[in-house]
């Protein structure tokens, strides 16, 4: 297999016109349906913003972002009941490009985007409701997300709330 050239990747903000012309299959029908069908209503109702990760003209991944607030286990210096966050609503990589760290690259882009945004508005965390399976939880943990302790071991939950502090310095 030829090594993947990451220099061709770019992330763009999608609109309904762009979304109407793409083909995408990540192997998860719920995520595919969100991007190819549900995203139009989400964009038109200003519920989230969709970003596409493209390799030349092919969509290799996507994610959605929206406003959020979270309640976390440990309090910060300022004792608030909830803290400002950006939520990753959906994130997926096309089947043909999985296991190339494109998902982690998209997370890195999101962190940079949120750090830039935090200089303009109050924003401290990135949140996600991760699918409750070992592979997905491990992916987010490897990208420095922490699960809410109160629900991490609940095997019956469909999703596990996780968050990442964008002010923490990661070595």
Explain this structure to me?
This protein has 4 helices and 7 strands, in the order E-H-H-E-E-E-H-E-H-E-E. It is α+β, with helices and mostly antiparallel strands and 171 residues long. The protein has one domain: Aminopeptidase (3-Layer(aba) Sandwich). Strands 1-2-3-4-5-7-6 form a 7-stranded mixed sheet, with helices on both faces. The mean pLDDT is 91.
What is the topology?
Blueprint: E1 9-13, H1 16-19, H2 29-44, E2 49-55, E3 58-70, E4 83-93, H3 102-118, E5 125-131, H4 134-142, E6 146-147, E7 159-165
Parallel strand pairs: 4-5
Antiparallel strand pairs: 1-2, 2-3, 3-4, 5-7, 6-7
- Percentage of residues in strands: 25-35%
**How much helix, percentage-wise, in residues?**
25-40%
Gross morphology: globular
Q: What is the distance, rounded to the nearest whole angstrom, between the alpha carbons of the first and last residues?
A: 31 Å
Number of domains: 1
User: Structural class of the secondary elements?
Assistant: alpha+beta
- The biggest beta sheet, please? 7 strands, mixed
How many helices in DSSP terms? 4
Would you tell me the overall average pLDDT? 91
Number of DSSP strands? 7
Low-confidence stretches: none
Q: Report the radius of gyration as a whole number of Å.
A: 16 Å
Say what the CATH topology is. Answer: Aminopeptidase
So, CATH architecture? 3-Layer(aba) Sandwich
Order of helices and strands: EHHEEEHEHEE
Q: How is the largest sheet built, in terms of strand order?
A: 1-2-3-4-5-7-6
| The CATH H-level homologous superfamily | Gcn5-related N-acetyltransferase (GNAT)
Q: Identify the CATH class.
A: Alpha Beta
């Amino acid at each position: 297999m030829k090594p993947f050239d990451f220099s061709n990747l770019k992330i763009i903000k999608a609109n309904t016109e762009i979304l109407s012309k793409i083909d995408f299959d990540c192997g998860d029908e719920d995520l595919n349906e969100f991007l190819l069908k549900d995203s139009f209503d989400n964009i038109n109702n200003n519920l989230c913003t969709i970003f596409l990760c493209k390799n030349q003209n092919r969509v290799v991944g996507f994610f959605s972002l929206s406003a959020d607030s979270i309640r976390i286990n440990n309090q910060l210096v300022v004792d608030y009941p909830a803290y400002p966050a950006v939520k990753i609503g959906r994130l997926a990589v096309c089947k043909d490009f999985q296991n190339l760290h494109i998902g982690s690259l998209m997370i890195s882009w999101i962190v940079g985007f949120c750090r830039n945004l935090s200089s303009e508005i109050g924003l401290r965390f990135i949140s996600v409701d991760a699918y409750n399976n070992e592979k997905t939880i491990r992916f987010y943990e490897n990208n420095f997300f922490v699960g809410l302790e109160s629900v991490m071991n609940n095997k019956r939950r469909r999703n596990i709330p996780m968050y990442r502090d964008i002010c923490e310095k990661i070595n």
